């Protein structure tokens, strides 16, 4: 119901169909040689199909080792796929025109530690051929946007991990890219820094930029994304618009009673899936909507005090866990893992 693969084109964030996706991934597979003699192969990505529309924030979700970073490395030709193809803005990945129109923040960025944030942006901007005046203007604006203006002259070797991360986000934007790739962009940030980066990503969408970011932090994806895809062990487990996922309906109804009699609870047992008593209160879960009115009638007839009756809708975490748990059982961790 939520899959937009196999050639079905989704709507863009603005609601209209577009002729050229920002990112097209078709059957990407990546095998790594492993073992001392490199005689075995490990499949990190398995026939991945994705399509990202212009102007949307797209989240690639999955546990550690799911294939998120491998996907981004392939898109930036840091590693090469075993099979499959991908395009950015309608162009092949080896087209140099693409390089001018994308920005990238790797998961663990490393920069020359003797450089300051300002020098890093100047260095990166010169690689894109920016003139001095334009480079000075963009550098000042970006340092303000990522909260590093007062640390512009601080050598990166003396900066915190969060500051380095912010500098990495700034360098990914120095060329004013049309598509921005962020691999775990919240890594190392304090709560204030996380909020600032979320605001920055939302600003990029307002500027009609496409943002493709990977994360295992579901709250960030739920706050930011128009659509999400879930990877597990290199396989696509689900993909869809976030508003559709979050409107899949009520997963359970929480029914809380105070001082219900034993007779009331016995009648309710056939209608509920869970009963938890805490002091004078009893929390019951009802999964079948047809049983809600019946349960309420039983409680009122038995003169039990109804504290609350709340529908609990599916969250992104619920959807994520349902997709991950649908895969084959995971191997037990090795000793010391």
Layout of helices and strands, plus pairs?
Blueprint: E1 23-34, E2 40-52, E3 57-61, H1 68-75, E4 83-88, E5 91-92, H2 96-99, E6 102-105, H3 117-127, H4 132-145, H5 161-173, E7 179-183, H6 191-206, E8 210-215, H7 218-224, E9 227-232, E10 235-241, H8 242-245, E11 250-258, H9 262-268, E12 274-278, E13 281-286, H10 292-301, E14 305-313, H11 316-325
Parallel strand pairs: 3-8, 3-9, 6-7, 7-8
Antiparallel strand pairs: 1-2, 1-4, 4-5, 9-10, 11-13, 11-14, 12-13
Write a compact overview of the structure shown.
Among the domains are: 23-101 and 177-245, Rossmann fold (3-Layer(aba) Sandwich); 251-313, Alpha-Beta Plaits. The chain has eleven helices and 14 strands. The chain has helices spanning 68-75, 96-99, 117-127, 132-145, 161-173, 191-206, 218-224, 242-245, 262-268, 292-301, 316-325; strands at 23-34, 40-52, 57-61, 83-88, 91-92, 102-105, 179-183, 210-215, 227-232, 235-241, 250-258, 274-278, 281-286, 305-313.
